TrEMBL record:
NCBIfam families: PRK00881.1, purH
Organism annotation: Vagococcus acidifermentans
Residue span(s) of domain MGS-like: 1-144
Gene Ontology terms, MF aspect: IMP cyclohydrolase activity; phosphoribosylaminoimidazolecarboxamide formyltransferase activity
Catalytic reaction list: (6R)-10-formyltetrahydrofolate + 5-amino-1-(5-phospho-beta-D-ribosyl)imidazole-4-carboxamide = 5-formamido-1-(5-phospho-D-ribosyl)imidazole-4-carboxamide + (6S)-5,6,7,8-tetrahydrofolate; IMP + H2O = 5-formamido-1-(5-phospho-D-ribosyl)imidazole-4-carboxamide
GO BP term (any one): 'de novo' IMP biosynthetic process
Domain of life: Bacteria
Keyword list, A-Z: Hydrolase, Multifunctional enzyme, Purine biosynthesis, Transferase
Enzyme Commission number, as recorded: 2.1.2.3, 3.5.4.10
Domain commentary: The IMP cyclohydrolase activity resides in the N-terminal region.
Name under which the protein is recorded: Bifunctional purine biosynthesis protein PurH
Length: 496
């Protein structure tokens, strides 16, 4: 006789499923609460104690953890040695396992949950049975998702048994589930998961999950010195800013809005760098995030405190600067170790409907010495410095991305437009009369020469772009016609 072990926390649909298994002549073994639910509904079951010869004990911590259960699940049916060992120990094979786990996620999402309550909701026996059954999918059908009840019944009714392909698929589902279940427990116990007030919008729930070993230069490792708790958008914006600032080793300030830079400035002092980042776009910085790669002194703090900002991130705050900025109760001040800013070579992930994508971070070190000048006129040294500065910036702007700027300051940033000249027009409008002082950086090639023509009309003297369009020659001819120096980097920096 075939046997099914049923032990479920979520009892939805279990009665109908068990009834149908019984109709197929399958004997049902079940644990305490499951047995009560099934028997109240008139489904006869064998209690787990009758199988193990042991009572459920330790408040349910030990019910199914027994060789009579795991032997019955793990024995290979194609090996005589396994079958004879089962017989020698009076163990019956178990052919179906239907288990869903203690609701750990639901438990920890309760606002008043205690650690004891959370710990009691870590299921041990359930995942053990699921994993034993899944390992032996050659013979055992394992069901952890009530959504699979109908599918299993349909196969049993049609052919008397489940197919190997289905059992394998269900086994894979089990390992994905137990791995996610354990991951959540690890993050909870490691204090790595912070439930946020909300996500991108108030109607979205969200949490921040830190890596077990978050690098020192990361938003996950930032020390908050002042202000309200970080929001979902704060975390993403600050992260975007950290990725930007690590491009620059000189005293530099990056101002960020909605994950794009709105101003980047470099100078001999951090005060001067902030002034340049601010002047780049004194309007957009309002409500933004400012990242400084040198300690904040009092003079800079005075400038910073004169505007409304969400967050300031820096390697340190001098005591008077901290005292001044801390007067703003809501202003989030984050301190980070910038000395390790270049030690990142992480993978990154984004979710899509039905899965996720994984890739290396775009940490290519751009080497202007390897760039190729494709025009008659070579860039001057000053132009070359400006091209290098703005190329670092454009890499962090949402595509299609255009950055206009000098060797120490961005002056116009065009982000996220669906055509390249659209981004250029926005950047030029921002730079205004200063467009003629700028060089131009484009994150990807020009599909046609219209952007170069527009640049020429606005007095731009030098351009950096990856090259690689079939119409590159049109852009080169247009640049030559107007005496523009243009270099190709051979590297594209899309950012979607
Ligand atoms: N301790 C054990 O041996 C054990 N065996 C099964 N469970 C879990 O107990 C729950 C079902 O319990 P009940 O049938 O008593 O309502 C299931 O979520 C199952 O995963 C166990 N509980 C926790 O580890």
């Amino acid at each position: 006789m075939r046997r099914a072990l049923i032990s479920v926390s979520d009892k939805n649909g279990i009665v109908a499923f068990a009834k149908e298994l019984a109709n197929q002549g399958i004997e049902i073994i079940s644990t305490g609460g499951t047995k009560r639910a099934l028997e109240e509904a008139g489904v006869a079951t064998v209690g787990i104690e009758e199988v193990t010869g042991f009572p459920e004990m330790l408040d349910g911590r030990v019910k199914t953890l027994h060789p009579k259960i795991h032997g019955g699940l793990l024995a290979r049916r194609d090996l005589d040695s396994h079958l004879s060992q089962l017989a020698a120990h009076d163990i019956q094979p178990i052919d179906f396992v239907c288990v869903n786990l203690y609701p750990f996620a639901e438990t920890i999402s309760k606002p008043d949950v205690t650690l004891d309550e959370a710990i009691e909701n870590i299921d041990i026996g359930g995942p053990s049975m699921l994993r034993s059954a899944a390992k032996n999918y050659a013979a055992v059908t394992v069901i952890t998702d009530p959504a699979d009840y109908d599918r299993v019944l349909a196969e049993l009714k049609a052919g008397g048994e489940t197919t190997l392909a289905t059992r394998k698929e269900l086994a894979a589902k089990v390992f994905a589930h137990t791995s996610a279940y354990d991951g959540l427990i690890a993050r909870y116990l490691g204090n790595r998961e912070t439930v946020l007030r909300y996500g991108e919008n108030p109607q979205q729930q969200a949490s921040f999950i830190r890596d077990a070993e978050a690098p020192a230069f990361s938003i996950a490792a930032a020390k908050q010195l002042n202000g309200k708790e970080l929001s979902y958008n704060n975390i993403r914006d600050a992260d975007a800013g950290l990725r930007m600032i690590r491009e620059y080793s000189e005293p530099t300030v990056v101002a960020i809005k909605h994950m794009n830079p709105c101003g980047i400035g470099t100078a001999d002092t951090i005060f001067g760098a902030f002034q340049k980042a601010f002047d780049a776009d004194p309007v957009s910085i309002f409500g933004g995030i400012v990242i400084l790669n040198r300690p904040v002194d009092l003079a800079t703090a005075e400038k910073l405190s004169a505007i409304f900002l969400e967050i300031i991130v820096a390697p340190a705050f001098e005591p008077e600067a901290l005292a001044l900025l801390s007067k703003k109760k809501n202003l989030r001040l984050l301190q980070l170790d910038f000395s390790s800013q270049n030690q990142h070579n992480a993978r990154e992930f984004v979710s899509v409907l039905g899965g996720y994508l994984e890739q290396d971070m775009d940490t290519t070190a751009d080497d202007p010495a390897a760039w190729q000048c494709v025009t008659e006129r070579q860039p001057t040294e000053e132009e070359m410095r400006a091209l290098a500065f703005n190329w670092k910036a454009v890499k962090h702007v949402k595509s299609n991305a255009i950055v206009l700027g000098t060797a120490s300051q961005t002056l116009g940033i065009g982000a996220g437009q669906m055509n390249r000249i659209g981004s250029l027009k926005i950047a030029a409008e921002q730079a205004g009369a200063r467009t003629a002082d700028c060089v131009l950086a484009s994150d990807a090639f020009f599909p046609m020469d219209d952007s170069v023509a527009f640049a020429a009309e606005h007095g731009i003297r030098a351009i950096v772009q990856p090259g690689g369009s079939i119409k590159d020659q049109d852009s080169i001819d247009m640049a030559n016609k107007h005496g523009i120096a243009m270099v190709f980097t051979g590297v594209r920096h899309f950012k979607h």
